[in-house]
Amino acid sequence: MNIAIYCGSNYGNDKIYIKSAKEVIGFLAKKEVNIVYGGSNSGLMSIISNEALSLGMNVTGVITHKLALKELENLNLTEIYKVNNIRERKAKMEELSDAFIALPGGFGTLEEISEVFTSIQIGTHTKPCALYNLNGYYDKLIDFLQNCINEGFLQQEHLDAVIISDDIRYIYQAFENYNAPKSKWELLNVN
Predict the structure, then answer these.
(1) In the chain, what is the straight-line distance between the N-terminal and C-terminal CA atoms, in Å?
(2) How far is 107 from 100, CA to CA, in rounded Å?
(3) Count of domains in the chain?
(4) Do β-strands 129-132 and 2-6 pair in parallel, antiparallel, or remain unpaired?
(5) What residues make up the domain containing 92?
(6) Contacting residues for 15 by C-beta, under 8 A, at least 6 apart
(7) Sheet strands side by side (includes 162-165)
C-alpha cells in the first residue's frame, strides 16, 4: 500500500509533533507500506521521510522544480518526481497513493487534504483519507465542516468518510476496512 502523508514544512512549536511523526512512521514500517510525500527535507516532512528511510521503507517524493532549486529537496529518497507546479504535485501524489493521512501542517497541508476530500465527495476516486488529530489539532476544522453540514453545504456521509483519530493503528485498520461513500451526485439523486 502506498500512503501519502501530508504535513508541515515546519516542525511546530511542540516536540510532540516530531515524536508523533516518528511513531506514525514506526508503525507504518511494520505494515510494510510505502510513503509518498512532498519531497522536502524541511520540517515534519523531513522527519517523515528520513525516519522512513532509516527504517528501510520506500519513500517517493513529489516536488516542484522551483522548490528543488531552493535546496529543499530530500536527496536520499527511493524515488523523486519533479513537476512544474503545486497542482501537478497534488495530482501526482494522488495518482501514486492508495490512502492519505494529514498530520499537522499549515495552508499546504490543508489544501492537499481538502482536494482529496473533494475527490471523494464528487466520486473522482474512492481512496480513504484521514486526519491525524494529534492534540486535537484538527478539532476546529472538524467543527467548521460540521457547520458546513448544518448550513446545507456538505453532506454528513462525506464527513463521516473522513477517518479522524490520533491513533495510527485505528487509522490503518480503518484504511483496510474502508468503504467509500456514494458521490455527492448519487446522494442527491437518492433524496
Answers:
(1) 35
(2) 17
(3) 1
(4) unpaired
(5) 2-185
(6) none
(7) 79-83, 59-64, 34-37, 2-6, 99-102, 129-132, 162-165
